[in-house]
Amino acid sequence: MKITSLLIANRGEIAVRINETAKRLKIKTFGIKTSKEPNALYLRLVDDVIDFSDSSEEIPEFLDIERIIEAARINKIDAIHPGYGFLAENPYFARRCKEENIIFIGPSDTAIYKMGNKTIAKQIAMKHKIPLLQGSQGNVKNVREATDIAEKIGYPVILKAAAGGGGRGMRIVEKSSQLEKMFKMATNEALKAFNDSSVFIEKYVRNPRHIEFQILGDQHGHYVHLGERECSIQRKHQKLIEESPSAALDDKLRAEMGEAAVSIARAVDYYSAGTVEFLLDDDKNYFFMEMNTRIQVEHPVTEMVSGVDLIELQIRIAEGKKLPFTQKDIRLSGWAIECRINAEDVQAGFSPNLGIIEKISLPKGKNIRIDSGVTDYSVITPYFDSMIAKLIVHADTREKAIQTVSAALRKCLIKGIKTTIPFCLKVMNNRKFRKADFNTSFIEKELDNLYYQGAEDEMLAAYVATFDFAAQLETDRITFVDFERGKNISPWVLNKWLKSL
Amino acid sequence: MKIISRKKKTENQYFAVTPHGKKYMIVNPFSEELKINSRKEEIRIFEDDDGFTYLEYKNKKYLAEIIEKYQNKYTVLLNGVSYSFTIETPISYNRRKFLEKHKQVSKSETINAPMPGKIIELLVEENVTVKEGEAILILEAMKMQNEITTHVSGTVKKISVRSGDTVAKDQVMVEIER
Prior knowledge:
The complex is a heterodimer. In chain A, about 35% of the residues lie in helices and about 25% in strands. By secondary structure, chain A is of the alpha+beta class. Chain A folds into 5 domains: about 5-105, Rossmann fold (3-Layer(aba) Sandwich); about 145-205, Dna Ligase, domain 1; about 205-325, D-amino Acid Aminotransferase, Chain A, domain 1 (2-Layer Sandwich); about 335-455, ATP-grasp fold, B domain (D-amino Acid Aminotransferase, Chain A, domain 1, 2-Layer Sandwich), CATH 3.30.470.20; about 460-500, no CATH class. The radius of gyration of chain A is 26 Å and the shape is globular. Chain B has 2 domains: about 15-95, no CATH class; about 110-175, CATH 2.40.50.100.
């Protein structure tokens, strides 16, 4: 069935992104207006707006399954794109769409369910001989049991307190001779810290990289992968910078992991776009972690190196069309890097920086792509995530891509709120990052501070403050009678004025 | 009547002090004679058509924004990183320095009321020695009796309150000489 109208059940940059492709495909688009963001950019771009402003506090607008479905029904909309987050990986929502004869842009509800359940997903991976992080089934009773498991899965292993957290009751065991001692220490520590001595055992991955594969499948059993994304630059499991390809993979490993990703998708009759996540250790062993059954935030890096439009393919696949290419047609070229620009105060531990964007100007140019959901006077609210834009660049080599990113970051001008730009610059300037020598512990281990600062920046800031203060004093002197005027005059205007005196 | 700006006979001198006490001496912020920490510097401030303010320094552009300003306390965002300063003139700077120095000379520390309340009992007398962490008096506030302890060891020099007195927040109650 051809899709002629589409309800975008999302907001922010992804709503803008989906709208763009849909319009190019001559599909009529609908957006959802909320009382939390009544002037959001995406609402100005969609063809039609459905007003959810009167929504109750209890169910957030983008999670209100029945209301979204009813809106689609009333407006006779063919399909719903959930974007990412919200209802994107909710199997019940996908099923409700199917029941109402609305096309859900994404995989089947069964595929979402199977991959969303960690136990089932791991069983499927095991059945298809995909490497998994092995470990004990539940808690380990004694040293003997621990030894048996460790011998089976191989060292190093990690003992973790079942009730644990924060690194307490956690012991890494390198070889069998250490196990007995470490087991005692871990159980003692667990008992002291959590009043529960039970521990479990798992294969330990030293400094893993986060590598994920983009896969595509149609409803006719055809599959391809579009290579990997390296997402190891993350803080508290939040990805901040992504790239494709990964410097850690060669063609052979890429083909092998890509094949593994496809076989997992095939095992659940997956269709639409999906992402299979792996951990990669120092010795290039990979382990299946999970599958994300939606479009990802970082999908643009894959689009840049592969030249495909993933949203378009999601729509075509949902219509029942066959994939327009096979694996051997896929050509990946160059290097793409994405920086997430979030409204966060890096100097205050990445805390959300709410407020109004007074002015925003983002760079344009060949090989530079900006996916953004904000504009001048957009409000950063506490209700939604803090991402305001993604900067994506494409270049022939990784080195050139880093250069382009650095230059482009300096051209991202945002007034009114603080963003993660100084953090991104810091990473781009890091020697180890430039050498592609990093893993998921990069931020905690390699960065002394989390934001880029030039040697003379503090002095220049001191000058700005002093200039303003001195201008204020001058104004007070000159216009000593006219207090109101002196208070309101902009120091920058005053400067010109003073010079003209 | 025409108001004429005062002719600057002396150099315009300011200090920008960071919260860590790092000091930038800035002379003649408006003129070509700008000096920062006694070095001649060339910095240009300008605004573009979009309303962004920049500094130009050594052929590089820096995005600048004053994000907080209260009297002489400033927070400036420069290339997305914030910096805080207290701006002083030589007079205010010297006065503050003098006060700080003066404070260092005097070895006494004060115990101030952490909240408004009523003194229930004094646990020390003048001229006795106390150890850090020792209870000095009991202050009742919001129907709760609070033991107020000393944060320094030394000799009780002066007690300015009596049992039954009500005290305001931050009121000096006891002075202790180290």
